Amino acid sequence: MAPKDLQVLDDVDRKLVVLLQRDGRMPNNELARRAGIAPSTCLNRVRGLQERGVVRGVHADVDLAALGLTIEAMIAVVLRREARASIPRFAGIMTEKPYVINAFYVSGSYDYLLHVACEGTDGLREVVNDLSVMPQVAGTETHLIFEHRPGRAVGE
């Protein structure tokens, strides 16, 4: 959900957000230098961005294959009409599954897109089977991910 006061970001805040997206572990002194502000100001600004929910966290970019997760896929999920009232519950169930990297509630022909990672094709088959037997799921469609390239920082 977008922060309510997003429109009050000034150019310095926006610069900090872009820099943090590129490298969330950048030391405060370097972040301040690149943003053109004092380190104490930078620290206060970053804390403010966190408190307002603009910066929600810092995440590691992990090589999934190094963890043995050699197959990634996007699985489109259609929920049964009578299960639509349980959409928030479905999202909670999905984000607890060890194979789900991201769950997207979407518009269009599908209700959810699930970004999953598995140990080979047998693992992917188990994931699809797990989803298919859920009572709220009407159907799935699986799309293999051959390559992923992150986009540029938002706001850049």
Give a brief description.
With 156 residues, the protein is α+β, with helices and mostly antiparallel strands.
Notes on the structure:
This protein has helices spanning 11-22, 28-35, 39-51, 87-96, 120-132, and strands spanning 71-79, 100-105, 112-118, 137-145. A hairpin with a 6-residue loop joins strand 2 and strand 3 (112-118). The protein is 36% helix and 20% strand. It has 156 residues and is an alpha+beta fold. The two termini are 20 Å apart. Helix 1 packs across helix 2 (28-35) and helix 2 crosses helix 3. The model has no long low-confidence stretch (mean pLDDT 90). Strands 2-3-1-4 form a 4-stranded antiparallel beta sheet. The protein folds into 2 domains: 9-51, Orthogonal Bundle (Arc Repressor Mutant, subunit A), CATH 1.10.10; 64-145, Alpha-Beta Plaits. It is elongated. It is built from 5 helices and 4 strands; from the N terminus they run αααβαββαβ.
